[in-house]
């Protein structure tokens, strides 16, 4: 097996090939471009594998090479400490180290989705990014009023119908009113764009059976269902529900030595959006009408005396386990079946 390590940049790509004996058999440096990449890779004998560190160009390179039947592995740079923390560093040397790490079996692969799933994931993340921008704009608008001693609680300050009323309270002799008008115009435009993005996301998600099944689970709305589907991609990536918990920041990590537990805490290396989706679903479920998750939350807090934030985490794990089950088994959610399993 030939291991082709790549140090990828927008201008150039450095290659280093480590053969089956662990010897560097070939090096190269090409300008970043589809034709140049394929020309170098194809002169390396088969079997071969291309190793890339996660980055902005990783998806692009993976798509180019896999369409031509090449095997590509995208690795986690946080695990490749020999490269990142080395005192001696350079593009050529980094490519060689990456190939050697993969040759020795010391790389951690990051799963990247197929092209059709990739575009859906990018749309979902684009939606979340626009919502963050919307929140920043709202905070800026309220800050302008508060800096001038004007109370502006609630949402009416953003309402187009109340716009003139709020603007009239600002000092007229300064350019502050003009600034706030500009921020409000940006907010109104962004609101419309977010609605359009949300509708596109729903249209893309309607053809995915796992989203339809997740929507039947208490607490999971369209946004959460699309987010979970986009991030997980293929549920078969996880051999059991506990691995999904770890990826979603809901699992417990332990450090043991000599038969004693030295440390126990929630997983710290996890997907933030996935954890947010499960916890948001848990909070919605415990606030909605009678359902298994609300009963579980009441049992934990009222009967067992568990703190509310810890009870929410437990409910989030239950929802994640339900998502794992309905997705992997390709069956619709049945709340009665969940209650029967709990009793058993």
Mean pLDDT rating: 88
Our measurement of the CA-to-CA distance between the termini, rounded to an integer number of angstroms, reads: 51 Å
| Helix count from the secondary structure assignment | 14
Total E-strand runs = 7
- Count of individual domains: 3
Low-confidence stretches: none
Major sheet description: 5 strands, mixed
Q: What characteristic shape results from the CA principal axes?
A: globular
Q: Structural class, from helix and strand content?
A: alpha/beta
Q: Radius of gyration, rounded?
A: 26 Å
Order of helices and strands: EEEHEHEHHHHHHHHEEHHHH
Assembly level: single chain
Strand order of the largest sheet: 3-2-1-4-5
Q: Strand-residue fraction?
A: 5-15%
* DSSP helix fraction: 40-55%
Give a short synopsis of this structure:
The protein is α/β, with parallel strands linked by helices and 344 residues long. 54% of the residues lie in helices and 13% in strands.
Explain what this protein looks like in three dimensions.
This protein is of the alpha/beta class and 344 residues long. The chain has 3 domains: 2-104, Nucleotidyltransferase, domain 5; 116-205; 211-343, no CATH class. Helix content is 54%, strand content 13%. It contains 14 helices and 7 strands. Strand 1 and strand 2 form a beta hairpin.
Features:
single chain; alpha/beta; Nucleotidyltransferase, domain 5; two-stranded antiparallel sheet; 14 helices; 7 strands
